[in-house]
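Appendix B. Chain record.
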Amino acid sequence: MPLYTKFLKELINKTRSWHEKKTTMLTEECSAVIQRGILPKLKDTGSFVVSCTIGKMTLEKALCNLGASINLVPLSMMRKLAIEEIKPIRMSLVMADRSIKTCNRVVENLLVKVGEFIFLQTL
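Structure tokens predicted for this chain:
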């Protein structure tokens, strides 16, 4: 029986008390973490702009949002990028303002350069 299961059963059956104290020897790593305490909460960076290169086109002020998990690019931008490897897809996305956007194409395995880093993306 795993230790946590045994511990929980003892708590439920009231054979163990929450106030029961035991001494445990800590390693240096554990001790350092406990002494340092909880790290302060940092301010949310929100959205910001970065320089981004897709194919031969460089976007000097590409909006970057750390909370986004879907890359949505307007069809006019896809035409400017002149990407030929486009797969047909039928998908609808419900946006934060509850509007619905219909996607009809997807680009897979596209190299996107941000600063000095290159990422593999799906648009």
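Further analysis of this model is presented in Appendix C.
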